[in-house]
Amino acid sequence: MSRRWVHAPEGSHWGEFGPDDQRGRMNLVTPEKVLQGIAEVRHGRSFCLSLPLDVPGGQAMNPRRIAPRRYAVTRDGRSAGQQGFCWSYASEDPELTDVVNDDLVLMSLQYSTQWDSLAHVGSRFDADGDGIDEAVFYNGFRAGAEIRPAREDAAASEAHARYPEPVAGALGIERLAEHGVQGRGVLIDLAHHLGRTRQAVGYDALMRILEADRITIEPGDMVCLHTGFADTLLAMNRQPDLDVLHATGSGLDGHDRRLLDWIVDVRLACLIADNPAVELVVPKLQHPQPLRRPRLPLHEHCLFKNGIHLGELWYLTELAGWLRAHGRSRFLLTAPPLRLPGAVGSPVTPIATV
Ligand code: UVW
């Protein structure tokens, strides 16, 4: 297929893995990188890098996202719950002994520990050169064309009638699932150096931390940033205190040009953090320049321009402590998202093995 853009955005690498590529820099996680990850396994100890998926709790942290609601599947108009505990086949044949539960879950795919797909954030940009901006994503895939909107008529039950179902299209999270997402993880412990107060981490601060901890990032590494945010959130037991959270945790400074260039030049495969956006989001009213700009410049740089997947709200605290105690920063990371066609994100239960 020929290129679907005339203009690529400034600072982008569209076409780096071919014009039809939908996997971006995860292409750098090659069989060799999987072997490098496996070589980091010396103790056989695993760490769960996910929050319980009903954390943060409620919708205060992000009003667009709903916590998991779990329903029993109905049969003959009745749910297992109405019958007591679970289904029994005894109504078919009194001699049958099996009892059965089935669940249905309704949740925002990016409610808790998550992957953002490359269809999550794009930009209003004139990729086709007709002088008019269109909503466009990595490698020029367009909203409403290759990226298909979720359906609005899903109505399996009154519980999810208001929420649309994903329909397969370009850049869905299944592209990442098909890759497997296994390779070498590298943890940068921002919280150890900066504490848990809110601060934007730019190029200089990050380089100082890498040097202090003797960390080298190599092409194809999956880079995890420990800020302590998820640990603070977890301790709130599903009742997030926004005043405290808004003052908690560092995040990358998406306005620092040198940092954005470094992210691309070092050829890392993806960026992961235990905070909600990897970058520190500047509140609307505080932004200094009333210019045409992205609200989330790191999202724009990574997801839209350079095909770098983002992982958010991961739980990295125990892993960070163990790695520091053992003088290490590298581990085997296994983190496949759901193979859910067309979805713009996915819950994930990643595993670090050391
Ligand atoms: C937005 O809120 C747009 O995204 P994220 O969850 O990736 O920070």
- Biggest sheet, strands in spatial order? 1-19-17-11-13-15-16-8-18
Class by SSE composition: alpha+beta
Q: Let me know the number of strands.
A: 19
Number of helices: 9
Q: What quaternary form is this?
A: single chain
In the CATH hierarchy, what is the architecture at level 2? Answer: 3-Layer(bba) Sandwich
Q: What's the alpha carbon Rg, rounded to whole Å?
A: 22 Å
Count of discrete structural domains: 1
CATH class, anyone? Alpha Beta
Largest sheet: 9 strands, mixed
What percentage of the residues does DSSP assign to strands (E)?
15-25%
Q: From N to C, what is the helix and strand string?
A: HEEEEEEEEEEHEHEHEHHEHEHEHEEE
What is the terminal separation in angstroms?
42 Å
Percent helix range: 10-25%
Low-confidence sequence ranges: 153-166
Bound molecules: acetylphosphate
What gross morphology would you assign?
Answer: globular
CATH evolutionary superfamily: Putative cyclase
Jot down its keywords:
9 helices; globular; 354 residues; two-stranded antiparallel sheet; binds acetylphosphate; Glucose Oxidase, domain 1
What does this structure look like?
The chain is globular. The chain has 354 residues and is of the alpha+beta class. Strands 1-19-17-11-13-15-16-8-18 form a 9-stranded mixed sheet, sandwiched between helices. The protein has a two-stranded antiparallel ribbon with strand order 2-7. Helices cover 19% and strands 19% of the residues. The protein is built from 9 helices and 19 strands. It starts with 30 loop residues before the first helix and ends with a strand. It has helices spanning 31-38, 174-179, 190-194, 203-212, 229-235, 242-245, 257-265, 297-305, 317-325; strands at residues 46-48, 69-72, 74-75, 78-79, 87-88, 99-100, 103-106, 114-116, 123-125, 134-136, 182-189, 199-201, 222-226, 250-252, 270-273, 309-312, 330-334, 345-347, 351-353. Mean pLDDT is 91; it is low at 153-166. It has one domain (24-62, 108-353): Glucose Oxidase, domain 1 (3-Layer(bba) Sandwich), CATH 3.50.30.
